[in-house]
Amino acid sequence: MHSDNFSSISKVIYTRNNSSFSSILDFSTPTTPKPQVTVTPLKESHVQAAVKCSQKYGMQVRVRSGEAKTAWVQAGATIGKLYHAIAEKSKTLAFPAGVCPTVGVGGHFSGGGYGFLMRKYGLAADNVVDAHLIVVNGRLLDRKSMGEDLFWAIRGGGGASFGVIVAWKIKLVSVPETVTAFIVNRTLEQNATKIVDRWQYVADKLHEDLYIRVFLSSATSSRRGKKTIRASFESLFLGGADTLLPLMQQSFPELGLVKQDCIEMSWIESVMHFAGFRGRSLDVLLNRTQPNVRFFKAKSDIVKEPIPEIAFLGIYEKFYEKEAEDAEIIFTPYGGIMNEISDFETPFPYRAGTIYKIQHMVRWEEEGSEASQRHINWIRRLYSYMAPYVSKNPRAAYIGSCEDYG
C-alpha cells in the first residue's frame, strides 16, 4: 500500500483497542458479535484498500450503510434546531453542544462549544469534521481545499477571524436510550461549602459518563427569611439510576444523592429538562428567541488548583450585595476525554490539568446606563477578587459567548 494511502486510511480504522470502537457501530447487546476492525471510509480509495487488505489476510467484509453518523449543519441554524433534527432521526444519537437552544451554531462551534456531553465526547469543535468557508476573494473552500492549518484555526479560534463559515459537517455521538438527570440543592445551613469544596477534588475524576456542574447563587433561607447561599448540583449521567446511585456513593457520597432525586429520560428529554422546557413539545427547540430577554454581563476563568475553602467566604459577601440579586457562578467540570485530547488539537488549549471552568454572571432588567454600570462594576469586583485563585500568566478565558453552553 502506498504510504500516502496508508496514512490517510489509518485515520479511519478502529480496532478493539480504540476507546471509541464501541461508539462507531451500535451493538444492540453486549453479546452481539463485534468485528475485529471497523473502517469508516471517507472516499472510494479507503473502500478499495479495505477490500484488498481483507483478501490478503483472509478476513470477511461486512458492509453497513447509513451509519456514518455525520450531518451537515448550516451556520445560521440554532443549537435547538440541530437537537430537534437529531431527535427526529434517532433515539441513540446526540451532539455535544451547549444548553441554550437559541444560540447559533456558527459562533458556538467556532469558539469551542461546551455542553453536558463534554467529559464523554469533548467540545462541539472537537466533533467537527469538515466545513464550508468563504474567504476574502469569494472562493468557497472545504476542509481539503482550505488546508489543515485553516481548518484547525476555525475550530476554537473564532470563525469570523478567517472568513465566513456557511456550514459545518459534524460527527454525531452515541448515547443510551435512557439517561439520568438530577438537580440537588444545598444551602450553607446544609453544609454547601464543604460539599462544593469536595466537588473540586472529584469533579474532573468522575467516570466520563457522569457530568456534574455547580451553580452558586444567593437565596432566602427558610429560617426567618434570612439570606443564604445556595449550591445547585446539576448532573447528566449516560445510563440508568440503578447504575448512577452506587457510582455516586463510591465517588461523591458527600452530596447525599438518593433515588428520589434521579429522573430517567431520553437524551433529548434531558436537553429539554436543562433548558427549562420539561414537559413541553420538542418544537419549542425551534424558537430562535428567548421568551424573557434581560441584560447580562459575564466573564470566565480556568481553574487548575482547588480554590481554598476560606476563599468562598469572600464570594458569598459579593453575593449578599444588592447588585447580585440575579447573579451566579457556574463551575463546569473537565476531565474525562478532555484530558486525552492534545492541547494542540484545536486552538482550544484548556485540556489536561484543568479542573473546571468558572462562568461569572450577573443579570438585570432595569434599563439605562446607570443600572448597567452598577452591575458591571459588581462583576468586575468579583472578577478581581477571584484573581489569586484562578489561572495566571496569562489569566485564561473562553473565547466564545459565555452563555452558549448554558
UniProtKB/TrEMBL annotation:
One example GO MF annotation: FAD binding
Protein name as catalogued: FAD-binding PCMH-type domain-containing protein
Organism: Citrus x changshan-huyou
Highest taxon above the source species: Eukaryota
Taxonomic path: Eukaryota, Viridiplantae, Streptophyta, Embryophyta, Tracheophyta
InterPro entries found in the cross-reference section: FAD-bd_PCMH (IPR016166), FAD-bd_PCMH-like_sf (IPR036318), FAD-bd_PCMH_sub1 (IPR016167), FAD-bd_PCMH_sub2 (IPR016169), Oxid_FAD_bind_N (IPR006094)
UniProt-listed PROSITE patterns: FAD_PCMH
SUPFAM superfamilies linked: FAD-binding/transporter-associated domain-like (SSF56176)
Cofactor(s) recorded in Swiss-Prot or TrEMBL: FAD
Domain FAD-binding PCMH-type: 1-175
